[in-house]
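user: Please supply your own:

assistant:
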Amino acid sequence: RIHLMAGRVPLGADRAAVAGEMETTFIENLRYAADLLAQEGMIGLVEPINSHITDPRYFLNTPHQAAAILEKVGRPNLKLQLDLFHCQIMDGNLSGNLEKYFPLIGHIQIAQVPGRHEPDSPGELNYNYIFELLESLGYSGYVGCEYAPKGDTVEGLGWLRSYWESRGLQHGGTSKAAE
């Protein structure tokens, strides 16, 4: 799986004025990349990145826009990389968006909102609920941790051990019953 970036609105350009041309170019580039990736059995991912905090000039900013572009591209080996941090900032409605776009999702990334720290840090998102929702939807892919740990990396993964324990799992995600 490889993230195919959408590009940025040129400095000084009006987003609305260049949106059509940028979308056309992005679609052509995605088709070209998808065809090359298909030869290698690879999946291309498009990720909406919020324009409110992270990158005001990034062209692709909502899951709705990404889904529309994926439909226009029409390649089965292109999927949505849904970063829940960006999705929450741009649109909220994470449960609805996860359910609506689930067939398009090829990768999930997480971080707490607003601080972009560990999932169990204070913030807007209830990751225990989100993980249970992903499980109920049948998500079996990876979940990328794209956050800035408040401390060191190992300390920053403490939430995962706590989550596993709350689910009756041991360190590493194996069932205690499997022993």
